[in-house]
Amino acid sequence: MNRIRPHATVDDVLLVLTQVVEQVEVMWERSKDVSPAPLSVSQLRVLFVLERSEGANLRALGEALDAAPSSVSRLCDRLQAVGFLERGLSATSRREVELTLSERGRAYLAELRERRREHLRDVVGTLPAAARSTLVTGLRQLRDAAPVVHRLDDDGEPGTQSA
Predict the structure, then answer these.
(1) pLDDT 10s digits, 118-134
(2) Fewer C-beta within 10 Å: the chain N or C terminus?
(3) Within a domain: residue 152?
(4) Looking at the domain assignment, is residue 22 inside a domain?
(5) Which residues of 102-125 are buried (b: 16+ CB within 10 A; e: fewer)?
């Protein structure tokens, strides 16, 4: 039942938000599969973290992803093999390796985001202007209230830097 209450409860919000997230996941999964090199969710997470944290090392990346070093290393090996990631020596420590996105990796993320926007544009474009404004306000509040995930501070360490 789609009964509208004057004041939504947390459970009301969670129900609708879960439904929306699931629908968006389906749309985004379709857009991911269109690319020449579809990536796993874990591989995408690596690209997103490195995009925000150029030059992170494997340890910091593992902490940001909450993943074991061996898993992170394998993910990076695969991403390097398809040309999305580059490894280089750290400017501050000869023992550390810095991870950066390649131009191909950046282009992949840009294309992926554009396909995602196209899918969402089709849906959001059907909403009246007032509903879009309300949605933007609510989504900004949700974004600001959510903990920062998968971001590293300027020093490449896990932190709470906002994008």
Answers:
(1) 888 988 999 999 999 99
(2) N
(3) no
(4) yes
(5) beebeebbeebeebbeebeeeeee
Q: Does some domain include residue 154?
A: no
How big is the CA angle at 51 (ends 159 and 71), to the nearest 5 degrees?
75
Provide the domain count of the chain: 1
Task: Measure the N-to-C terminal CA separation of the chain; round to a whole number of Å.
Answer: 38
- The token pair at 120 is 């969402």
Convert the pLDDT of each residue in 77-123 to its tens digit.
999 999 999 998 877 777 888 999 999 999 999 988 888 888 889 88
> Domain limits at 103?
10-145
Question: Which residue bears the tokens 């903990």?
Answer: 147
Q: Kindly compute the dihedral angle of the four CA atoms of residues 60, 63, 65, 69, in this order, to the nearest 10 degrees.
A: 80
- pTM here is 0.71
